[in-house]
Design goal:
heterodimer, A: 322 residues, mainly alpha, two-stranded antiparallel ribbon, 14 helices, 74% helix, globular, B: 250 residues, alpha/beta, Rossmann fold, 2 domains, six-stranded mixed β-sheet, 9 helices, 10 strands, 24% strand
Chain lengths: 322, 250
Amino acid sequence: MNPRLEKLDAAILILVAVGAAFVPFVLSGYEIKLATTITIQAGFAVALGLVVGPAGLTSIGHAAFYGVAAYLLAMLAPPDGPADLLPTALAAIAAAAACAAVVGAISIRSRGMYFILMTLAFGQLGYHFFNDTGIAGTSDGVYVNFRPELHLPWTDVSFDKAPAFYGFVYVVVLAVIAACWWLRRSAFGSILLAARDNEARTRAFGFSPYRVRLAAFVISGAMAGAMGYLTAAQHGYVAPQMLAWHASAFALVMVLIGGKDTTSGPAVGAIVLLLAEEFLQRWTEHWLIGIGLIIVVAVIAAPKGLVPFAARLLNSRQARHG
Amino acid sequence: MAEAILRATGIGKRFGGLLAVDHVDLELAPNEIHAVIGPNGAGKSTFLATLAGDLPPTTGSVMLQGQDVTRLPVDARTRRGIGRTYQHSAVIPGFSALDMVCLAMLHRTRRAAGLLHPLARDEAARTEAWETLGRVGLADRAGVATDVMSHGEKRRLEIAAVLALGPKVLLLDEPLAGLGPDESRDVVALIGGLRSRCAIVLIEHDIDAVFSVADRITVLDNGRMIERGTPAAVRDSAVVQQAYLGAGED
């Protein structure tokens, strides 16, 4: 990544993180719930960005990992009281990681269009598993009656109030984004990039591209699972649509709109698209047409994503004035 | 001859109806520079690819220090000590020269947990990478992106990166391709100087360079070995002159 884009990437992350920290203090009610949704989706998009960007794997099946973790909370939560957050979250994330390991181990052997088709097929397999079988509510979905509680040795922490839950989501998503930022800049991230851009040379340096891609895929799947768990906890309801290809594709659009080669790009994509969705829905019932137009304009104007586009604008502005 | 560090026996490679390499043997002694020459299409690069692990041989075996590596993929062979360069410069776009060399050193210098740190974070590794770049005359280009390097610089960077692997056996596939006379001279001197560090299999079309640096030469034609010996013996071979050096031409 060029140094200017790298600086802008870090600056955007810090700016968004600082701004988001004020949400519970300056917003209220529905706005906090909207901010919670956007924050979770930003975390999901950044997690997906790790495989779409440096690993070069265009997954259209990541919602399966997101949804599996959500379903796990729904199935583990007792009907008459809040679930214990830590064990259920760990189980949900482990289930998502295990699914990602199986899907990745098979899919990563194929490349390009075939990889996309494999992840699409696995994602739909997950969707139909929950939609068509009676394991968890079929197409009606299943409720999570109480938001999970964090049991600490000295106290229990409830996230029933929207600001408290937002605070919890904020910390988790911040950790996920920081981990992705770190991984992209680590030697591990460099091996991923090298394998993406010159696979033969990377093999001849002693690395197995398959193994590093699989590791990235599993890490990303586990993070997507964490976001699915948060979504289930937020809405108290889980449905098969969470695993469907539309959800994967929408997250992929967030990644591409913001810029797959930066950590902040997918988060920016999530913020832009979800805010646009929110405001367009208030304005017209044909809001999906508006979303489509926004995507078309963004792809034409900023094919590498909004963050790289902003870096290029800053570059040209500095060149004019410098 | 000392115990061979690399022994290829009966290597054959078939692509459908085409037999690209036909039962070629090669024994590489420690610190030896063994050149493989032949006209275009002789099977040199295919033979090298079977030694490196890029292509599994149809027949035969490859032994590295007495261990059978025939079925190991290229990354596993690299970790066991076989380094290779490619016929076309194979740098990693977007990386600086220093980062590319640090990447090559990684599996030698880092444990798994070290993968979480940035590439050039370790000062000792940076210094070693910088010194390796200095060996190929690129110390002052350490921070330059590989994308903007000249063809000659890319070839030298690739050699530096492969040296950073610390190979026991170095496979060089036409390292002088596309280089000017001055750059070629430098790279030939560099290859000669590597003899003390590792054994080398050299594929090269520049015959003068091959004769100046090789200890032994194997000549391939149509996938088969037609001659093997010292440079002087190969130069005087009637078979080689007939098949490769153009005996009888004006």
